[in-house]
Structures are given as C-alpha cells and as structure tokens.
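Q: Hi! First time doing this. I have a protein sequence and I read that you can turn it into a structure. Is that right? Here it is:
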Amino acid sequence: MRKGFVWTALVSLFAICSMAVPALAAEKGLARADKAFVKSAAGGGMMEVQMGELATKNAASQEVKDFGQRMVTDHGKANDELKTIAAAKDVKLPTELKGKQKEKVDKFSKLTGAEFDKKYMQAMVKDHVKDIAKFNKAIKNVKDPEINAWATKTLPTLEQHLQQAKELAQKVGAEVK
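A: Yes, that's right. Below is the predicted 3D structure, encoded as structure tokens:
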C-alpha cells in the first residue's frame, strides 16, 4: 500500500514537471530584460485601455472622452500586436491588472466630471513620460529584433499621446509637472 502511494506520488510529480519544464524552457530563448519589458509593456498597455474606457464614460469634456477613446484604440492595437509576438516566443503575458495598476484604475473608476478630467489628464502625462523613457531604454537594450521593432514602431504613437495629453491637461486645468 505504501509503495503504491509513493509510486503514484513520483509519477504525478514527474508528470507535473514534464509539463512545466517545456514552458519554462520556451521562455528561456529571450533575454530576461526582453521578457521583463514585454510583460511591463503589456501591463501598461492594458491599464491605458482600461483607463481610456473610464474616460469615455466618466469625463466631462468631449476632448477628454475622445482622448480616452484614442487610448483604447491605439493601446488596444499595440497590445494585440504584442500578444502575437509574445505568443510566438512563448512568453505569458498578464491577463489582468494587479498591484498599483489595478489600484489606479479602481481609484479613477470612482471619479467623474471635471475632477476626473483633471486627474486623468495629469495621470496620462505622467504615465506617458514614464512609458516613453521605458521604450527608449528598451530600444537601446532589447536584444530580440522583433520586440525591438515593435518598441520602435510604438514609440512615436506614445510621443503623440504625450503631446496631446499635455495640451488637454492645460485645457482642463490639470497640474502638470
């Protein structure tokens, strides 16, 4: 009886390991920094889409609503392209927001009107400044040519977002540093 239990446990452990090892090995083809960038970009893009969706509902200004829709469209498209690249490289991307990103979306979901407009546009300026810095760093350091090409292609759109966010932030009276 005891030998049967030990044998079953060993076979089960072997089966579990044989499924996990190929998944881990598949991601090993990419440099750690490349994987980290892909996962970070995916999470950031997902947050921009969710924040944009909130803007289309909660903003007072039509321009802020339109900007939110642009975030949904542009970041949604970039996310889809990144998902395709990540799938081909067997990199598992986050499927939901966690931590600070989730907290941020939850916080903004409670805001409406002019208050939403100001805080959202302020956040969009800050987020896009950080995103542009991450993408510039990735373009210099990412080793995988496909990921590098995606970052290079996406950067000008982020720069356009930042410019538009700064202009709208001024219009709605948001403090921008």
